[in-house]
Structure formats: C-alpha cells, structure tokens
Amino acid sequence: MSKWKKIVAGLMATAMVGSLAACGSNTAYAMTIDGMQVKAGVYIYFAYSAYSEAVSTLQSQNSELDTSDNDVVKAQKIDGKDTETWIKDKTLEYCQQYVAVEQKYSELSLELSDESKTEIDNTLNNFWDTNSKTFEANGISKESVKLVLENTYHTNDLFLYYYDIDGEEGVTEDELKEYYIDNDARVRYIKIDLKDGNGDLLKSDAKDAMLEQVNGYLKRVEAKEGDEEAMLDEMDAIQTDYNAYVTSISEEAAAETATSATDENGNEIAATTTTTAATTTTAETTTTAVTEEDSAAATETAGADEAAETTAAEESASEETATEATTGESDGSGETTTTTSKYANETIIAKVTTNEKTKEEDITYTPSKKAYDYIFNDAKLGVPAVVEDDEACYLVLRLDIEERMTDDDLWSDTQKTSVVTRKYSDAFEDMLDQWCDAQTVEKNDRAIKRYDAFDLDFSSK
C-alpha cells in the first residue's frame, strides 16, 4: 500500500479514544488553513493517528519500551525531536494534507462515484452503530468521521486524476508495462531444505548427498530446456518427489524416537509417532519483499512517511483468479468439479523498494536474499539453476512475464492501477508536499492544547 493512502480501518482505532468534553464554541475548530477551518473532530482523529504512529515507531526502535506510560513516551525522541513535538508536527502535517486534498478536489470539480459514496455510507454507518458513544464523548461528530472517510477517497481520486493512464501527468500504458517488466519477476521455484528429518542442518557426507540429489533435480529440468511447458511439468514432478522424500525422512526420524509403553495390565501399547521436523514446500502464489510498516498501518494518513516502502502482494502479484491453486465450476448437475490453474505454482516477485530509513534486518526477501539477488541480477529466462543458501537450496526457473501480461491475467485493470500506485506514489507525495508548503496556517492554540494526544484515553471504549 502506498504511503499517501489512509486506511479506513484507522477509524476503528479512533473509536478507542477515551472521553473528552464536547467541543466548546471556542474550540470547535483546531486551525484554519488557507481559509478552510479544520473541525475539532477531524483534528482529534489526526492527533490520535500521529500518537499511534509515534508509539509504533518507538516500539520498533525498542521493543522493551513501556509505551503504555505517557511519561516514558514523552521522554523519547523521534527524528531528533521530543515525542510531544513530533506528534504535534505530524498532526499538523495530516491536517494540512487533508485541506490540500479537499481544496484541490474542489478546484478540479471532481466528484465521488456512486460506488464510492455507497462504500463511504456503509462504512460510516457500521462504525457509528458500534462506536457512536465513544465518538460523541470525544467531540467527534458523525459528520467529522464522514469527512475523514471522504478525504481518503478524494486522495485516491486525485492520485488517479494525475497519474492514471492518460491522466493529467501524461502517463502511458507503455511506460507502466516497462516498469512492471523491469521490477517484477515471474518465477517457478522449489525450496529444498538442507536438513534432516529432525530439522537439523545436514553435515559433511549427508549434505553432499543432498546436494547431489538437488543436482539431479536440476539435470532433469535442464533436459527439457527449450520447452517451457515441459520444464514446468518437470518442476511439478520434482516437487512431488521432494515432498514424498521429506515425508519419508520425517517419518523415519519420528519412528527412531518413538517409544513403546504398557497399560496398567501390562499390555503393550503401540508406539505413536508424530511428524513435525520437516515440512514440504511449494511455490507461493504471491510473494513480496516486506519491510516493517510505518506506525500505524491502521491509521496511515495522506503523506505519512514510512520507515520503508515495499511492494505489497496486492500491488505486485498476479490477480487471485490467475494464481489460485483450484477453482470450482458447476457442471450443471449441481456438482462442482475442481480444476487446477495453469499458473498455480508460479510466483510473481516484486523488487524491494526502500528509503533511507530502511534497515536491512527489517527486510524479508522472497524466497531468500541470495535467491532474490540471483533472480533479479543473474537469472536468464528459461534457464534453470540452483542457488545454494545456508539452510536450503532453491531450484529456480525464471520465466517471461510478458507472456502473462493479458487482460485476464497479469495486466488487468486492477493490476494496472496497482502498478501506477507503485511507480508514481512518491511523485504524488512530492506534489502533495508542494501544495502544503504553499499554505497559510492559523492555529487555534486553545483547541490544540485541549485536544492534546497525551490527554486521550486509549484504553476505554
């Protein structure tokens, strides 16, 4: 998910805010930005979002920190600022972005679709039915909640207005295709553990024997080079063989450790075994390179910085209809037949994208760092290879992703929008920052003090 999009689930977090008196006449608005007043209820929502983001950031820095203690939280620093200042600055940033989006949306005479309006109303009613007392106790009216929800949709509409195919910034479909091809890999791989039936790493002769077995797998696929379908069939056969092998060594290991016993009458009880050490591994249907999310995955707001931005599964992988292992189809008799997807065992892996705050230890590579590097730096299309890592080998076959870029597979309208988001979210973020930089802000200090994030009670409902 791109960093400038707010997540609707954040409203649920807001519903946890404790009791505050209803807004007074002098604190009904927290600030005025370019002539637009920001309602107190909207400000409280963003204050809570900023506080949650701060807590999440502090926890990522020190998991032992007691963030339930306000004094402890206040004593910390984020980006060189004391936490209180950081939260106030972040809340202001969110409010500025909120106003920037609303004013630009109005200026361009954009309108929400009927579908979006229905989604907003349904979400609003659901939240209000279960949380109205808490919202009202905090001075957050139903209208304020709706404003925040609408702003989320306005932000998305604006982004697409500028950066969708043939949008205001002149994005073309060919540019998107080139980006997708350069940043995503279509792969069939099999992970082969270098472990015994108990899950312990293999050593010396046992490891050599396993590597010889892996080399045999590779030769089987190499014998089919030039015929992609035959190579994939062979990979499937190898997967089946390997799964059977894993099951057998696990059962053997369990049998070796099994013990027999007798009941109270001295009769022998058959030994029982449990297979737990080894597991079979099949290729995943969707894969991502994942880093830690920013504070509030559930309260992310337009323009919020992320510790690292990565390509999420919904943005990088083929659509579910193309990658699900089986589909059910009725034959007209009331019974359902099961068919296997042609691409069920393939994986679409997206390149890792990070920023300067990303720590290497916070990134999870698929299927492993070494295999990932091989796939994007050295792999040749249609040429199988084995990548040996510390605890496993990977039999890897990179395939031509363009072959699957059709309307009903990897190049659907949904996928195009996902690629637009991945490619241009940073550009939109910069645009949003420019709008905010040009704003004039008049703060209502009395309201801001009254709705201090540290005065909110996050425990009550």
Architecture overview:
It is a single chain. This protein is α+β, with helices and mostly antiparallel strands. The protein is 46% helix and 12% strand. The protein contains 14 helices and 13 strands. The protein has helices at 10-14, 40-61, 70-74, 83-107, 114-137, 142-163, 173-183, 204-222, 228-257, 313-316, 320-323, 369-377, 413-437, 445-450, and strands at residues 29-33, 36-39, 77-78, 81-82, 184-193, 261-262, 268-269, 326-330, 336-340, 347-350, 385-388, 392-399, 441-443. The strands form five sheets. It has a four-stranded antiparallel β-sheet with strand order 10-5-12-11, with helices on both faces. Strands 2-1-13 form a three-stranded antiparallel β-sheet. Helix 4 (83-107) packs across helix 6, helix 5 (114-137) runs antiparallel to helix 6 (142-163) and helix 6 (142-163) crosses helix 13 (413-437). The longest helix has 30 residues, at 228-257.
What's the short version?
The chain is α+β, with helices and mostly antiparallel strands and 461 residues long.
Quaternary state of the chains: single chain
The main sheet orders its strands as 10-5-12-11
Count, helices: 14
| Regions with little confidence, pLDDT below 50 for 5+ residues | 1-24, 273-334
> Main β-sheet: number of strands, strand sense, barrel status?
4 strands, antiparallel
Measure the end-to-end span: 29 Å
Assign a percent range to the helix content: 40-55%
Shape: globular
Mean pLDDT: 81
Number of strands: 13
Supply Rg: 27 Å
How much of the sequence is in beta strands? 5-15%
The computed structural class is alpha+beta
Note the run of SSEs as H and E: HEEHHEEHHHHEHHEEHHEEEHEEHEH
